[in-house]
């Protein structure tokens, strides 16, 4: 490699330092330049976050890699790279397992990395993360390329510094102190991370950051399994109450006779079995946040008592006349249409309006596009660690199956599917594999295409009349089916159909559906 070729590769990156680019695009260009300078099959930029390495950009690795979170103590090659002051190249016959075995994209089979090198990145003399390069051929890298990688790492550190400086300036404009607190709390809490890159996910994160800084009551809505509790945790972390307790209560998990005691507490002898005085969730959450999940299951009686607490901040323990003053921010969640329940008399209108000061809709997984692969990667890495495997990956047909499936159970269904499929695939293997690949057959997802085609064919056969009538008949069926999937939530149906909610309402009215 000549000095001229090195200069030719690095000059565009130097120019990028003075340009305003999205963080993801800046890192993508960085990896592309590195692969041009040092030909390899895969490259990655990872940030060190406590005891975890978080991929920020990958080139040549499977899409789910971006969703994985690598625990340094479980990946000895990463530990070696982080402990080194400069570039490290591993021997092709090294016995240390490679974290990327089986993850090189566009290739089939149990492919293992045979040549690997990496370099730590230092920002302000502290280890910030890693650059890694991997090749499927032995002896791909040479001694001279370690020197080139060292030079490249210096520019990469400058790129990261610029990106972080730009981000800090943007955060300061919105509330630098608050966001810094969010980042501090997120460190070391990988299981609570919100993963996604889709537009709908980014909009949700923006709304969380917006409402988090306020003290408004938030009503989180969405289908079962979308992660409403995770959203509640993120709102709390984004609030000035982040260093105070977040107390949760699943309103559907308790009989009605115990809900009041759980919420407001009780004194000794308040009811049979009340042997001691006990503080309720409101008092435990004083100064912090109370999260009520499945709030649609509360009885009208409990709704009335909760309304009083929300209005005055005062409560009474069961069996006591003494008032207790509390300062609690309330976040509630439900998968029910509470507005419809109000119209039907099953829910108090005043309580509903108190809850929905700031309504927040969590998108269904099927509305998040390729986020399903990032989330799958996160769960794959969790199960790889739990099962003690060298690598756990998805084949190309498995990725296609995940993208095609409708996910009625959303993220929770995906998490359970990955865990179940990995366990079954390992159990059916004749001997314990180093790399375990999950195929579409292992996932055993229902084939949704055949029923859809059959339904469309049936609809076409039953339609008579001119083109306008046939079109309206199809629109009617499509909207009705979508509303059923969303439990008649018009906002959710509009998002899936790609329509404005008001336009969907007018169309439904014209078609006689409303």
Structure description:
α1 (3-16) runs antiparallel to α2 (23-37), α2 (23-37) runs antiparallel to α4 and α17 (467-485) crosses α18. The chain is 47% helix and 16% strand. The protein is of the alpha/beta class and 514 residues long. β5 and β6 form a beta hairpin. It is globular and about 80 Å long. A six-stranded antiparallel sheet has the order 3-2-1-6-5-4, with helices on both faces. The chain has a five-stranded parallel sheet with strand order 8-11-14-7-15. A two-stranded antiparallel sheet has the order 9-10. It folds into four domains: 3-169, GAF domain (Beta-Lactamase), CATH 3.30.450.40; 199-361, Rossmann fold, CATH 3.40.50.300; 365-443, Helicase, Ruva Protein, domain 3 (Orthogonal Bundle), CATH 1.10.8; 449-510, Arc Repressor Mutant, subunit A (Orthogonal Bundle), CATH 1.10.10.
List keywords for this structure.
514 residues, alpha/beta, Beta-Lactamase, Rossmann fold, Helicase, Ruva Protein, domain 3, 4 domains, 6-stranded antiparallel β-sheet, 5-stranded parallel β-sheet
Q: How much helix, percentage-wise, in residues? A: 40-55%
Unreliable spans: 170-191, 448-463
Strand order of the largest sheet: 3-2-1-6-5-4
Taking the sheet with the most strands, its summary is: 6 strands, antiparallel
Number of helices: 19
Q: Give the assembly state of these chains.
A: single chain
Counting structural domains, the number is 4
